[in-house]
């Protein structure tokens, strides 16, 4: 018999702004599919209120949170235990509240790898990869990408120093380097170009390196939208073999968080299909 006094397990996403987030829809679809009794809320929290909001969510019995822009880096100071991948990324996107402690993890990198490797079938081992941008999003994906042993991984950014800091941080892996947009080496074609800048969010198309795209290049935008993002348009205009927005990464990182919280892995394919149909 169902115990009507047992509260439903509560989860949510904290961001600022957050109204555009698709996470509640994705997690509700996962919960329905796996028959998990849970609720998932949209929580708009400004940076100065983050700590109070997280602690209150924890105090009132919340089980887990996703944390999104602009809190992924600052939330680290609230975490009692951090996973190695979140520590390497310098960013946390998943909090779990267990036994009075806050555990922090980062599922963005594995989400991207799953989308590229499993959903899209892009071989990463031995690939020449170019990442555009050197902010928090780049920091989250570089470590997991390097573990796939690409031939080269270049980070191009408007501000060279930021790209260089990330390249230096991961330099123990060898194959990584940094450059400004106008000095991207193009002797060897790129198999994969990932847009990790936030330029498209403001509808901007920076002077991306046109010559880096060939008809063998797969272009992937970490951003996604109802319409093609400026980077997707740029990629197609410059002859990329394929250009994809980050819907798959969004769904895959959510699935990884869901599994951390519930111990059940949802099937992402139908959810991804539904998100793209409704996009
Ligand atoms: P996120 O956490 O989403 O990565 P971020 O840390 O603010 O956000 O980083 C944004 C990235 O997008 C940076 O690499 C930024 O370039 P700079 O480091 O040179 O500022 C890049 N970016 C944003 N708008 C851009 C634009 N109009 N042209 C070029 N790069 C842009």
Q: What does the model show?
A:
Helices cover 35% and strands 20% of the residues. By secondary structure, the chain is of the alpha/beta class. The longest helix has 16 residues, at 247-262. The N and C termini lie far apart (40 Å). 2'-monophosphoadenosine-5'-diphosphate binds next to helix 5.
How would you summarize this macromolecular structure in one to three sentences?
The chain has 279 residues and is an alpha/beta fold.
Into which percent range does the helicity of residues fall? 25-40%
Task: Report the count of strand segments.
Answer: 12
CATH H-tier superfamily of the largest domain: NAD(P)-binding Rossmann-like Domain
CATH structural fold name of the largest domain: Rossmann fold
Low-confidence segments: none
The whole-angstrom Rg is 19 Å
CATH architecture of the largest domain: 3-Layer(aba) Sandwich
Topology:
Blueprint: E1 9-15, H1 23-34, E2 38-44, H2 50-59, E3 64-67, E4 81-82, H3 84-89, E5 94-98, E6 101-105, H4 108-119, E7 128-132, H5 136-147, E8 152-156, H6 160-169, E9 176-179, E10 192-195, E11 218-221, H7 230-237, E12 242-245, H8 247-262, H9 268-278
Parallel strand pairs: 1-2, 1-3, 4-6, 7-8, 7-10, 8-9, 10-11, 11-12
Antiparallel strand pairs: 3-5, 5-6
Helix pairs in contact: 1-8, 4-5, 4-8, 8-9
Task: Considering the chains and any ligands shown, give keywords for the structure.
279 residues; alpha/beta; Rossmann fold; six-stranded parallel sheet; 12 strands; binds 2'-monophosphoadenosine-5'-diphosphate
